[in-house]
């Protein structure tokens, strides 16, 4: 079995409109998409079912409303992993260590 991903999809979110498909591919192209994302510090989420759904879409398509909550949660989680929080966010449960 190869270490190369079978397929990959890249989304772009401008903060205003629904995220859209900006790249997708299989085999070597998928590996290139992931490598380029890593080079630029883009977080990568591996989910075969989500990937299969997004592969059915065309380049430039916005994600469908049925995926808004899922993608919003992934974006929000990626922000937390990068230490980004809204200005008015309060760590009420003190569960996130800001010193790490």
Account of the protein in words:
Pfam families: Bac_export_2 (PF01312). Required for formation of the rod structure in the basal body of the flagellar apparatus. Together with FliI and FliH, may constitute the export apparatus of flagellin. InterPro entries: T3SS_substrate_exporter, T3SS_substrate_exporter_C. This protein is α+β, with helices and mostly antiparallel strands. Helix content is 34%, strand content 13%. A two-stranded antiparallel ribbon has the order 1-2. A hairpin with a 7-residue loop joins strand 1 (7-12) and strand 2 (20-26). The protein starts with 6 loop residues before the first strand and ends in a 19-residue tail after the last helix.
Based on the model shown, name its key terms.
100 residues, alpha+beta, name from scop, two-stranded antiparallel ribbon, Flagellar biosynthetic protein FlhB, T3SS_substrate_exporter, transport, protein transport
